[in-house]
Amino acid sequence: MRERFDKEVLELIPHREPMLLVNHLISVSEKCSQARVLIDEQTPFFVPGEGVPAWIGLEYMGQTAALIAGYQQREGLSKPHLGFLMGSRKYHSSLAHFPSGENLVVSCEEAALVGESLATFNCTIRSESNSDSNIEALATAVLSVFRRPIET
């Protein structure tokens, strides 16, 4: 049986159940990440007969962006810090709920870094069965994240 969460996801971000929402790491680099989210009855925030409300996609995006920070810290590319989702611009979803049985591919790309404290990310959510970048996304947003250094 396939594990619900990849070991590398658990290593790169501090989130844990029940608030760990991304299941599998697809790819991660210094500026980009992709993760898979499984939508089923075990998924946090699942509403029977409807699925997961699409606004939860903001947190899917935030955790996928956090994979970039975890990677940067692991590779020594940034100092240890905590990331706080400060807000989003232009969140748009083409549906009200992500349906049961759907595998989502969440992609984030670091768009800007202002000093050491503010980062923005361009994010998309696509159906894994339609993850081609030429196919319209299920959801899109620009996230703003505040980065607070951790005293070591």
Provide an overview of this structure.
The protein has 152 residues and is an alpha+beta fold. It has one domain: Roll (Thiol Ester Dehydrase, Chain A). Helices cover 16% and strands 41% of the residues. It has two helices and eight strands; from the N terminus they run H-E-E-E-H-E-E-E-E-E. The strands form two sheets. A six-stranded antiparallel sheet has the order 1-2-6-7-8-4, with helices on one face. The longest helix is centred in the middle third of the chain and has 18 residues, at 57-74. The protein starts with 6 loop residues before the first helix and ends with a strand. The model has no long low-confidence stretch (mean pLDDT 91).
User: How far do the termini sit from each other?
Assistant: 39 Å
The CATH homology group name: Hotdog Thioesterase
How would you state the average pLDDT, rounded?
A: 91
CATH topology: Thiol Ester Dehydrase, Chain A
* Overall tally of domains: 1
Strand order of the largest sheet: 1-2-6-7-8-4
Helix/strand order: HEEEHEEEEE
Percent strand equals 35-45%
Rg calculated over all Cα atoms: 15 Å
The first-level CATH class name: Alpha Beta
**Strand elements, count:** 8
Helix content: 10-25%
List the defining traits of the structure above:
single chain; 152 residues; alpha+beta; Thiol Ester Dehydrase, Chain A; six-stranded antiparallel beta sheet; 2 helices; 8 strands; 16% helix; globular
Topology:
Elements: H1 7-12, E1 24-28, E2 32-38, E3 52-53, H2 57-74, E4 81-93, E5 97-98, E6 103-114, E7 118-127, E8 139-149
Antiparallel strand pairs: 1-2, 2-6, 3-5, 4-8, 6-7, 7-8
